[in-house]
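Reminder to self: tokens first, then the designed residues, so the page reads top to bottom the way the pipeline ran.
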């Protein structure tokens, strides 16, 4: 058998490689963010209570994505390192065991969708209309969650082997289908029944299903570095432990965000339901600003992981520095947009005068934290790639549960809603300090011991 040619992640010039790996994911994640925004824009046209309900469901959706992407980070990091180390059997085991774990997670959320929607909604509000909207939406997205797990796991396999162009196609196709189906199913266009918030949930599931099928086709036809032979498959405990070593911290890191969102919703709704709607809108708009940086992060993880496995320290260092520059530029630009155009962003969601009066200062205050977040996100890509996802978990825990939520609660005691938003800036500055501490630690314990070579 002829020797397998080295993957481009070990040979292509770093700046070109980062753009090659990250830009397709940035585009696809921007489209993903766009369809989340469009989803909420259409829901807001039903009424503000419908928008509030979708905002209250957001922690559950965040938790679902936490499991899907966290496991994806775990097995794709192992897969990329195995490629760099030329351990091709481990590459295949990583893919199959990762897919198995994703399917198990989908089954768990199916059960959640059967049993918990009403309890979850009533734990946050007693408004009957908001509760009913929330039950309708949550029941569908949870019971059909297997499709998002299927999509994300297969897209992670494409990303882990450097085929980000194909994952861009799958995510874009899924998002476009969702955007098209939203108004049709929500408002009953072209002979379709008007399904309201149920229509928004169904449109999302339909887009995810098509994207997952397309990702499967690309993996089977284009991803020659992974051999999908599930005959006689049994879960490999050793491989699953490796996946969990990186994946579980990533899951917890994002799940912490779900807890934080739930807590903030509880704090904000004590002022007014409109404040909760503003918070939901902020997350939708925020995702459009942050998704390019998350795309950059996703592109950097396999690059750093591969070159760490291949012992190429110089390439790792260049990738980290270049990624950091890109992230800071992107999020500084995002801050400028939030400072100058908050009213425009809110008006997209049919904002009332009350919503504008709450939302404009909120967006302007929170966006001051964006450049600090840029550094923490890129530090996280290094932690994940080198198998130290626990550092990201610690930082996320400190940022959101140790600092942000308590700060928000204490500031809320002033009785001034605007003060609550400053908790974001306080939390992000402290998170940056811990990120820099752990970067120094990982360089001293792992990277400094590597031989410096191309």
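Designed residues (454 positions):
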């Amino acid at each position: 058998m002829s020797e397998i040619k080295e993957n481009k992640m070990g040979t292509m010039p770093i700046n070109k490689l980062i753009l090659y790996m990250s830009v397709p994911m940035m585009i696809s994640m921007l489209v993903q963010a766009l369809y989340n925004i469009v989803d909420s824009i259409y829901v807001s046209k039903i009424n503000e209570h419908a928008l509030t309900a979708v905002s209250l469901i957001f922690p559950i959706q965040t938790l679902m994505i936490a499991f899907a992407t966290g496991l994806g980070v775990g097995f794709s990091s192992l897969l990329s390192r195995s490629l760099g180390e030329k351990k091709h059997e481990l590459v295949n085991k990583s893919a199959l065991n990762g897919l198995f774990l994703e399917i198990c997670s989908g089954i768990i959320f199916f059960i959640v969708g059967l049993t918990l929607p009403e309890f979850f909604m009533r734990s946050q509000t007693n408004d009957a209309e908001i509760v009913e909207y929330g039950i309708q939406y949550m029941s569908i997205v949870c019971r059909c969650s297997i499709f998002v797990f299927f999509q994300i796991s297969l897209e992670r396999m494409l990303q882990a082997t450097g085929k980000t162009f194909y994952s861009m196609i799958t995510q874009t196709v899924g998002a476009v289908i969702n955007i098209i189906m939203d108004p049709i199913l929500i408002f009953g266009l072209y002979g379709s029944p008007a399904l309201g918030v149920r229509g928004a949930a169904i449109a999302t599931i339909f887009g995810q299903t098509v994207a997952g099928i397309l990702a499967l086709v690309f993996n089977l036809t284009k991803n020659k570095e992974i051999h999908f032979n599930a005959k006689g498959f049994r879960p490999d405990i050793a491989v699953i432990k490796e996946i969990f070593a990186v994946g579980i911290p990533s899951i917890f890191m994002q799940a912490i965000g779900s807890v934080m969102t739930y807590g903030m919703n509880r704090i904000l709704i004590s002022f007014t339901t409109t404040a909760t709607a503003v918070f939901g809108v902020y997350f939708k708009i925020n995702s459009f600003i942050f998704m390019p940086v998350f795309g950059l992060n996703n592109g950097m993880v396999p690059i750093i992981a591969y070159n760490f496995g291949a012992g190429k320290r110089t390439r790792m260092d260049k990738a980290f520095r270049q990624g950091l520059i890109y992230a800071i530029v992107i999020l500084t630009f995002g801050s400028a947009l939030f400072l100058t155009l908050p009213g425009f962003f809110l008006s997209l969601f049919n904002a009332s005068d009350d919503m504008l009066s709450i939302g404009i200062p909120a967006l302007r205050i929170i966006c001051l934290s964006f450049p600090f977040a840029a550094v923490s996100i890129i530090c996280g890509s290094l932690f994940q790639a080198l198998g130290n996802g626990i550092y990201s978990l610690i930082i996320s825990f400190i940022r959101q549960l140790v600092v942000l939520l308590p700060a928000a609660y204490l500031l809320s005691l002033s009785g001034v809603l605007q003060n609550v938003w400053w908790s974001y800036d306080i939390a992000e500055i402290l998170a940056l300090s811990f990120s820099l501490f752990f970067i120094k630690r990982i360089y001293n314990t792992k990277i400094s011991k590597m031989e410096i070579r191309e």
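Residues 82 and 89 are 9 Å apart (CA to CA).
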